[in-house]
Amino acid sequence: MSDNWDPDSHPAPAASRIRKMASRSIAPVCNLLLQRAYPAFCEGLAVVGRPLLLSRAEDVTSQTATRSCLVLAPHPDDETLGCGATIMRKLAAGTPVQVIIAADGNWYRSSKLSVDAVNEIREEEARRACAILGLPCENITFLRFEDCRLADHRGLLRDRLFDILDTMNPEEIFVSSIIDNHPDHRVLAELGRELAQARRDRFPVLYEYPIWFWDPRIWRVTRLLQLRTRIVRTEEFRTRKREAIAAYRSQVTNLLGETRRAPLRRGFLRQFLQAEEIFFEISV
Question: Which residue among 3, 43, 195, 237 is the one 20 to 30 A from 271 at the CA level?
């Protein structure tokens, strides 16, 4: 190439044009893989892998029904997806349940509604879903941290959780799985372990519920081998759990008409409407 080549007065070299054309042709393929092919692969992995987890799981349905609990949810809907039937079973037995929702769930920033409007929708959906589960509004606490930024507020979040824990004495703590492929889920799982460790004298049982678990990109063999899988049967609570999930219309449908995001896939939701809810018991 000549030293005095002027890009403003000459067409781009052939190699550069080829690279641009290739980039434009590859981008749709990459988007298809990320938005459809890989999620479908993970859903298929769940279908195959779930029976393997269940084959070595312990049924704790009867034990957990009468134990008071604190449910820590990273976002609105995680509490229903992960342990909606377990919450209903406890409430049916007259067992106290408290739900804490850490983040606002507003990760995509709507182009049609303000941040406050979307946050209000997400909280109202959570109240409606929890009401279907049978949980009173006063038993739900919204901490309203920014979605995908829990790590940036870890200290403050930890203090808030410890303050809440001091006002109750739960026999069980439920929290998102540390193996989940979402940073907020992992941060809250770490804090759940800190809470249980700090309250060892009160012997809270710590269960992690998997949400974004069926994604091999974040698995570590040593972690998988250490899983102590527990199940709670859903039985007569499954229909109401389905209704509670449907209450999250902004997540299961394209309620806001956004083109930048897709609703939760049916194959993904199907994982949470099985005959049992899966948990991992964590030793502290």
Answer: 195
